[in-house]
Amino acid sequence: MGKVxxxxxxxxxxxxxxxxxxxxxxxMGFEAIEEGLGxxxxxxxxxxxxxxxxxxxxxxxxxxxxxxxxxxxRSWSQxxxxxxxxxxxxxxxxxxxxxxxxxxxxxxxGPARVVAHEAVAARFExxxxxxxxxxxxxxxxxxxxxxxxxxxxRAPDLxxxxxxxxxxxxxxxxxxxxxxxxxxxxxVWVPGxxxxxxxxxxxxxxxxxxxxxxVQRYPLEWAAALRRMEALGAETLLPGHGPPIFGSDxxxxxxxxxxxxxxxICAQTLEMMNAGAALIDILHAVEAPAALLDKPYLxxxxxxxxxxVRNLWRLYGGWYEGNPAHLKPAHDRAIAAEIxxxxxxxxxxxxxxxxxxxxxxxxxxxxxxxxAGDAGADPAIRARRSAIYAAxxxxxxxxxxxxxxxxxxxx
Length: 411
Hints:
This protein is an alpha/beta fold.
């Protein structure tokens, strides 16, 4: 058993926890899954089919790892790259093609073909417009300062809207569009191999469906796509992040459980929205089924259910969350100064925040610590505020929440 298969088995059986070996960030390198099928376990995975007409890649690596992907695949196959399929336009999936197009093997063959959903090009244009913002997000979310967001992208040569059938070197591939983590997502079914490549519609974690720093996600359509995939009877699932899943029963279970989690969160949120509840009440009332969150492939280690609720509110309810004071708010610093004056000063606020943190109420402690920090420029108070945010970051299971709180601790 190769290291990728072994890792997959250990995660599925619970021999190792995803909290210990996060499948989103744990990388295992290249492994041949079966004859003519290779898989690179990276920060974003790459699937490779070695066909008589050349390589077919499903995703191609990030702007940080694309050259490594090229090297690993060249050690496996010397065929030219025929087609690269982008499952979506996120920058951890679309930056390997240029490394193939520069190598001597490819030069003798000609440019590769890039296939993607028609919305990928618009995403690339948006990324160019918001490069500075996305640089800041990445620094905060992944704790990777100093890495600039890319502004040059390999455009698709062939796009599609709903479905696209390809036949390359005897391999039939069926591309299917679904809005989920993105509006430009593609999942790929290879019927001759009973192989399903989900892209980021499955990542061995609570779906990345509520990221507080990114654009709109689509939970209900995501769940519907998972149900379509569940019905295919796939024998192997190769995800966008994390190790493969082998065996039709396991594949069906993982997809069905993930769909059920999203369906439950959506149903609860929409029921409360339709009853007129405010967002804050919904956030504290909706509960993801605990039995599902206990699954080794649905732990909230990257995104988390409460963020999905917020995303649903944004999708169906806009940005007004039900508190009229927030409609046209005073500045945070003005509010903090007024509350500090009423409380007897910023020292009283930070002292109470520390007491709450000591008692284990970190959410409320952060509110008061933020007010204390905003109320004045006293370095000692701001340092105590940072300590509370550092404690909050250490207690968080999800990478997204942990990154934001850790960034606040440094601010």
